Amino acid sequence: MSLATLLLLPLAALGSRRAVPTDTVPLAPAAPLRWYVPSHLLLHTAGGQGLAAVGAGWRACHNRLALETLAGYLPKQYSITPMGIFTAKISYTPWQLPLKATAWRVQPFTVGAFTSYSASRGLTTTRGSKYDDDYYWWSSHTHTHRGICGRQRGPRFSAYQAWSSSFSHGLL
Amino acid sequence: MLLTGCELIEFSPNQTSSPAAYSDLTAKNLALLAQKQLPAGDTLRFVFTGDSQRFYSEAEDLVESVNQQPGIAFLVVAGDISDFGLGREMRWVHDKLKHLRVPYLTMIGNHDHAANGRLAYQEVFGPLNYVFTYAGTRFIMLNTNGREYRFDGTVPNISWLQQQLADTAGVQRQVVINHVPPMDEDFDRQLEQPYVQALKAAPRVALALNGHRHDFGIDEPYGEGLTLINSYAFEKRRYVIMTLWGNNQFKLKTVDF
């Protein structure tokens, strides 16, 4: 099964379960959520966050601002050993285009930044016994990125198409 | 569909696979070099530089300058192609150096080992140790980044070096190219003397060329008969044109760009 198919399956499932009348688009849950309950779940690919990643997010400012966390996976074929990529991301989405007759929105443009930690035995550490302090000033496991993406968003779900990002190394 | 055929789609900055146009570059450059062989005995001129890491605008200017130099056979980058050991950095450097009118050859540096950079280097460029012969000169490209192997006594590979030095058939002179110079603290101390003795015992070694220190230097720290030369880094906006003739005669010309 292709990854594209995997992406679409949960969209279709959630979309049908949450179908609403054509003249009604629920913009927010009926009851306010406690602050720690994620406002949406994520399925994500590429953008430096793994072949596939899942996560949870919190929205604010009329759904324009989002804070999200993801756990991604990169198979061995792309490195020496498999990689787990853990990401924290903040993003801003200025426009949300309704999809007619559904609760879904298309967000054609999102700008944001994120930091990720890549866990893998195949990545040698730049902080370790073989180096003096500050031999390498950066960490080989931590990256910070900034970038843009497009995505589809439902009431409780987001699917990213991709992040095209530039990045620098973190210090952690 | 979305995930293939587009280099903008990247699963991790550390993914090591490289597109065909950016893989096996050492073999491709050696094939280009083989197409314009210089007869043994002719004077050989090549550009010696190193440490291209993140100096992309300097790389552009270097290419423009080198392309104006007459009679150059090839260019050598003595290690640290990348800063973070990322394949994409190596591809970005290639995007600059592919505009050279001559082939270029690289040595792996300590920064190219960072993270999973050793595999990325192998994907983009090729072997970590290799040799090629041009104009009667045998170039021995030797990985000397001992610290990256925890000084475990395997790098540099002395027995491999000795084998290459012993192979003198049709070779007028030998030039050894490293990244870390033998007197550097990043060179495996237990292998310093074996390395030096191997080079001093080989009668056709003309020079040992290194990078890593980002600045030019020429010295005989191990006594007469073994000359070490260090390259300018790209950031210095200088490179050296090296001219070799005879058995071990050479001339250096510094070029600003």
Question: Explain this structure to me?
Answer:
- The complex is a heterodimer of chains A (172) and B (257).
- Chain A is mainly beta.
- Chain A has one domain (3-10, 39-169).
- Chain A has one helix and eight strands.
- Chain A has one helix spanning 3-17, and strands spanning 40-44, 52-60, 65-74, 83-92, 97-98, 105-119, 142-153, 157-169.
- In chain A, a hairpin with a 3-residue loop joins strand 7 (142-153) and strand 8.
- Chain A is elongated and about 65 Å long.
- The model of chain A is unreliable at 1-20 (pLDDT under 50).
- Chain B has a single domain, classed as Purple Acid Phosphatase, chain A, domain 2 (4-Layer Sandwich).
- Chain B has six helices and eleven strands.
- Chain B has helices spanning 25-34, 56-66, 87-97, 117-124, 158-166, 189-201, and strands spanning 44-49, 75-77, 104-106, 130-134, 137-141, 173-177, 205-210, 217-219, 228-230, 238-245, 249-256.
- Chain B has a six-stranded mixed beta sheet. In chain B, strands 3-2-1-10-11 form a five-stranded mixed beta sheet.
- The A-B interface holds A 3-4, 45-51, 74, 77-80, 83, 85, 118, 120, 122-124, 126, 129-131, 136, 138, 140-141, 143, 161-162, 164-165, 167, 169 and B 1-3, 8-17, 84-85, 113-116, 119, 147-148, 150-151.
Range of helix content of chain A: under 10%
Count of helical stretches of chain B: 6
Question: What is the approximate shape of chain B?
Answer: globular
- Kindly state the number of beta strands of chain A: 8
Class of secondary structure makeup of chain A: mainly beta
Helical amount among residues of chain B, as a percent range? 10-25%
**Most extensive interface:** A-B, 36 and 24 residues
Radius of gyration of chain B: 18 Å
Question: How many extended strands of chain B?
Answer: 11
Domain count of chain A: the total is 1
CATH topology of chain B: Purple Acid Phosphatase, chain A, domain 2
